[in-house]
């Protein structure tokens, strides 16, 4: 039942926001309707049309929440009489996309967009979001509350919200935090990466022909397919080159390759598609020695033109090393490291250590691995980087 309620929550919220317009009060009403369902359905049985039941209960609750305002009472009572016949509340209407856009309103910070998306579209509770991000529940509650107030203050209606590119960025942030946690004991937060994939599937159901939506879903699937091989039994990180590829999820790889192959030939090219294509090249190599590094470098060259950024630069430099040798890559890294966005970033030290190791300079590589370990907040990454340093001692 919890799974069903989580799936229905954004559809019900979308229906209410379409009708009434105020996100904050509608979200509160939906949460109360979900609570009522979780209490009543196990005792009284599930209704024939669960979504319709939730919409009706949430609509009534939304009106009750505003009836204390005497100036609006008569208008609200009139609306209440019209609710059952209103086409905006027909259960077959799916407003998931618009709800995505509203949660990713440009007036919100990235942290607020993420929290509101997980709450409103993903159906996660405040406590679940807090656990996934390893932050206090009060912090998440405050982000969500401020986000709803900002949307209200901005005068945003159901038809005025963010854009698809922002939605994709938020979903990508959620996935990345789940796939490689920025801090804490565990490398993965599977509940976040799985939720990001589920939400991206929902978005693609609404935007089937959008190349970047398809590209992002393919990227997530191809990346997440490697998760079973990324850690050892003790939680230690295993780098891509050392992973047991027999552990990779073949079904996810097949779906991801199929998705990216189809969209590359039909849609306008975008950065998520290029990243998915790079992941597909890695996924199709049965052994690390079979990796087509020239093709990966060529794809990074395209990505660097479409969406340049510090992490793209670092990943491209690794590909340069595999094609042209570590000396050329180290020279490019020296230039890239002058970017303020990369100043003393742990990945700069990790990449430099890797390149120095390839070049045969074990002593300097060991120092760089130790520097990288001190600068990351991820405990699995710290352990891995220190183990690399120790291996070079």
Number of strands: 0
Helix proportion:
55-70%
> How would you spell out the order of helices and strands?
HHHHHHHHHHHHHHHHHHH
Q: Please indicate the percent range of residues in DSSP E strands (runs of 2 or more).
A: under 5%
What about the largest sheet? none
* CA-atom Rg in angstroms: 24 Å
TL;DR of this structure?
The chain is an all-alpha fold. Helix content is 69%, strand content 0%.
Descriptive notes:
The chain is an all-alpha fold and 393 residues long. 69% of the residues lie in helices and 0% in strands. It contains 19 helices and no strands. Helix 2 (23-44) packs across helix 3 (50-66), helix 11 (211-224) packs antiparallel against helix 12 and helix 11 (211-224) runs parallel beside helix 13 (271-284). The protein is elongated and about 75 Å long.
Keywords:
single chain; 393 residues; mainly alpha
Per-chain topology:
Layout: H1 2-20, H2 23-44, H3 50-66, H4 70-82, H5 96-103, H6 110-121, H7 126-133, H8 137-153, H9 164-179, H10 190-206, H11 211-224, H12 250-264, H13 271-284, H14 293-306, H15 310-324, H16 326-336, H17 346-359, H18 362-375, H19 379-391
Helix pairs in contact: 1-2, 1-3, 2-3, 3-4, 5-6, 6-8, 6-9, 7-8, 9-10, 9-11, 10-11, 11-12, 11-13, 12-13, 13-14, 14-15, 15-16, 15-17, 16-17, 17-18, 18-19
